[in-house]
Amino acid sequence: MIDGLHSELGRVGICGRLRSRIVAELADHLACDPEADVGSPRDLAEQFANELGTSRSRVAAFGAFAALSLAGALYAASFAAMSVVAPSLGQAHARTGWLSALAVLLLLGAPQVSFAAGSLALVRALRRRRSTALPAAEVRVILRRAAVALAFGAAAMIGIALAGYEYAAELPGWVRLLDYVSAGGGVAAIGAAAFPLLAARRVAVSQGGGAGDLSDDLVPGVEPHRLALLVAALVTLVVAAAGIVQSDPIDGVVRGLADGGACLAGYALLGRFLGLRARA
Length: 280
Fold this sequence. Notes:
mainly alpha, single chain, 0% strand
C-alpha cells in the first residue's frame, strides 16, 4: 500500500517533501489502525492531486494578479513620464523604425491583454475559493489565464525598456533610467509569480466536469457572446466619454471604437483558450 501510494503520487506530480509527508502520515495512520479502509493508492493519489491542484491554481491566480499590480504601477509611472516629457514621440525620433513600432505595439496592446486575462483569472479563483477540488478543465482555464496575463505583462515591460532605448535622444536621462528600472522590476515580479504557476501545472488534476465560460465569471446565465458585446460597448463608451471630457470627441470616439474592437478581437482569438466561450 505504502509503496504503491509513493509511486502513484509521483505519477500525478506530487513529489519531494510533500510526497514523503503524505506517505509518512498514511503509514502512521495504518500503524494505528491496520484495518482502516483508505482506498486504493491510485484513488488516494488522485484525490490529493485534485485538491492540491485546485489550491495551487488559486494561489497562482492571486500571485499573478499581485505581481501584475506592481508591474502595472511601474508601467504607469514610466508611461506617464514619457508622455509628459516627450508627448509627440514618433518614428522620426527613434533609433530604428521597426523596433520603435514594436515598442509602441507592446506599450499599447500588451497591458490590455494582460489586465483582462489576469482579472478573469482572479475573478474565477475568487468565485471558486470555497471549492475543495475543481474540474481539471476549470483548473486548466485558471492557469491559462494566469499564464497569458504574465506573458503579456512581461511583454509590456519589455516595451517600456525598448521605448527608453529607441527614444533615448529625446528622453532625459532620468526618464530612461526610470524606464529600465521599471522594466527590470516588473519582469522580476512577474518572474517570481511564474513559480507558483509552474508548481500548479505540475500537478495532474483529473476530476471531471466542465470549465464554464464568461458567464460564470461575470453574469451567470447570460450568453457569453452577449457579454462580450456588452463589455466591448462599455469600453467604447468610456473611452469616447473620456475624449469628450478632454475636448477631443472625434479622437475619443476613434479610440473608443478601436478599443472596443480590440476587446471583440481578443474574445474571438483567445475566447476558447481562456475559457470565455464553449469549453476549453
